[in-house]
Amino acid sequence: PLKKVNGILESPTGTGKTLCLLCSTLAWREHFRDSISARKIAQRLGGGELFPDRPLSSWGTAATEEDASTYYTDVPKIIYASRTHSQLTQVIKELKNTVYRPKICVLGSREQLCINPEVKRLESNHMQIYMCRTKVMSRACHFYNNVEGELGRESQALASGDKSARQRSWEELSCPYYLSRSLKQQADVIFMPYNYLLDSKSRKSHNLDLKGTVVILDEAHNVEKLCEESASFDLTPYDLASAVDALSVVLEDQAKVVQHNEINAEFNMDLATSGLDMELEDIAKIKKILLQLESAIDAVELSPDDTGITKEGSYIFDLFAQAQITFQTKSSLLESLEQILQYLSSRPGLFVNTSGLHKLSDIIQ
Ligand code: SF4
């Protein structure tokens, strides 16, 4: 019967933990499916038996009576999480040595899965995300454009990182990142790095619903550290300074447009636009917020012996509130930052470092 409990298994390296976890959960899943089949048949037969020597009640007992599911969509998905992507690749290799052939999909970041050389070449993860988004919006990445067609075909191999799927011609390849996001709806087993599972922001952005799933955390001794990391951030003086610099560039651009338009208006000429639909005053307000945050952080008194300071968790909210960053102002601030970042990513001319702004936006989120 389905007990719905958590289990912790410990066993030395090389004793076959991964295979045990995979095979037992997959076998249980098949058993669960069999119980549904048996129930469906029993309903049709109205109490009769299909085979005299094998009663329907013996077909699968994975679901208890009170959990009696009659839909195949109720068969729980298995979420298999490990620390790194390469560990997951290892697990998938092991899965291929078993008799099970579930539909699988691997979730990963663009950094891990992107195959567009132009985007991959970019050093910063943030820049990769932005360039990818821009390309996707203008349908300028052919790997992305191929995803739709691929979804119509038998396509699980590519998302699982199967080399044979990668041997297609360059033009035919589909983006594994977007493909895996779509395939996860139909997958029986979803593989993912821990952070996708443990970070609520990630779960939300991938639309991951854990309700009713079987979650396996491989190498779980790393989980505590990861939880700690996902609730932590660092914000350096350099980050803040670069965010302020980036805002100064935007302010200058916008001021030029306003000035230009004042002249144009005098001569009844068309008004110019920078592509950023924000008032000068609002951009200046954001810059002021960052400067206030900088002063609030500067004002924190550190102990002279360089050991840093430790405060209650709620302290961080008070610190941000000193710069008017609160739960009430958060959404509008994030929206403005998003608009500014989008503007900067498509701004012609000299490269503006947006890593500080990106970091701040992540932190506020
Ligand atoms: S759509 Fe996929 S392949 Fe194209 S840039 Fe984005 S992540 Fe890379």
Q: How does this model look, in words?
A:
There is one protein chain. By secondary structure, the chain is mainly alpha-helical. The protein folds into 2 domains: 17-230, 3-Layer(aba) Sandwich (Rossmann fold); 237-364, no CATH class. The chain is 52% helix and 5% strand. The protein has helices spanning 17-45, 85-96, 110-113, 117-120, 125-137, 142-145, 147-152, 156-159, 163-166, 176-183, 194-198, 200-205, 223-230, 237-266, 280-298, 315-321, 330-345, 355-364; strands at 78-82, 104-106, 189-193, 214-217. A 4-stranded parallel sheet has the order 2-3-1-4, with helices on both faces. Helix 17 (330-345) packs antiparallel against helix 18 (355-364). 22% of the residues are buried. Mean pLDDT is 84; it is low at 155-159. The protein binds iron/sulfur cluster (SF4). The site of iron/sulfur cluster has 14 residues, from helix 5, helix 6 and helix 10.
